């Protein structure tokens, strides 16, 4: 049986010190939950190394909020998968609805997914429809397209 996952995306909240305190709170409560659940915290990038350091021995994995599809280059503000793995991230969120609403496309999600897997990160691919798409009755087609595009060229062992 696969383990269940509880992942907390901290978005653009907490300072690094507040993040460490939040991690300690999650770790303190983790023991009250079935061992069949994997815990992942996803802090802002600026906290990543500090949270990874403090998560050691807690059984809590650490992920990143996004990654670039490119390995390196003149992409101001982007974070490469190598930067994430070097900081200690194991997971990365790709295609979050907030990012899809401002810049992400199904194809860019696909490219980022492939980059994450190549770097050894486990992608958490977000899919979903807008309110308007739901009201039009196209939600399932939208989600199916998002999933198919995200994994379109991946090997079966990667899915």
Describe the protein in words:
By secondary structure, the protein is of the alpha/beta class. The chain is 43% helix and 16% strand. A 5-stranded parallel sheet has the order 1-2-3-4-5. Helix 5 runs parallel beside helix 7. The model has no long low-confidence stretch (mean pLDDT 92).
Tell how many strands the DSSP assignment holds: 5
The end-to-end distance, rounded to whole angstroms, is 17 Å
Shape: globular
User: Which structural class should the secondary elements be placed in?
Assistant: alpha/beta
Tell me the strand percentage band: 15-25%
Please give the share of residues in helix.
Answer: 40-55%
What's the story with the biggest beta sheet? 5 strands, parallel
Rounded radius of gyration (Å)? 16 Å
Order of helices and strands: EHEHEHEHHEHH
Which strands sit side by side, in order, in the main sheet?
A: 1-2-3-4-5
Q: What ranges have pLDDT less than 50 throughout 5 or more consecutive residues? A: none
Question: If you average the pLDDT, what whole number results?
Answer: 92
Number of helices: 7
What's the topology here?
Layout: E1 4-9, H1 16-30, E2 37-42, H2 48-55, E3 60-64, H3 81-87, E4 91-94, H4 97-102, H5 106-119, E5 122-125, H6 131-136, H7 139-150
Parallel strand pairs: 1-2, 2-3, 3-4, 4-5
A few lines on this structure:
With 159 residues, the chain is an alpha/beta fold. Helices cover 43% and strands 16% of the residues. It has helices at 16-30, 48-55, 81-87, 97-102, 106-119, 131-136, 139-150, and strands at residues 4-9, 37-42, 60-64, 91-94, 122-125.
């Amino acid at each position: 049986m696969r383990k269940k996952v509880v992942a907390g995306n901290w978005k653009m909240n907490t300072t690094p010190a507040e993040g460490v305190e939040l991690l300690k709170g999650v770790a303190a409560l983790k023991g009250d939950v079935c061992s069949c659940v994997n815990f992942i915290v996803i802090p802002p990038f600026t906290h990543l190394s500090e949270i990874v350091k403090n998560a050691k021995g807690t059984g809590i994995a650490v992920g990143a909020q996004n990654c670039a599809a490119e390995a390196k280059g003149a992409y101001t503000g982007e974070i490469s998968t190598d930067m994430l793995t070097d900081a200690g991230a194991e997971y990365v969120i790709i295609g979050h609805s907030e990012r899809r609403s401002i810049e992400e496309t199904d194809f860019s999600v696909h490219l980022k997914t492939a980059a994450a897997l190549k770097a050894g990160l486990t992608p958490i691919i977000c899919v979903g429809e807008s309110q308007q798409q739901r009201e039009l009755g196209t939600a399932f087609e939208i989600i199916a397209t998002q999933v198919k595009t995200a994994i379109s060229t991946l090997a079966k062992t990667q899915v």
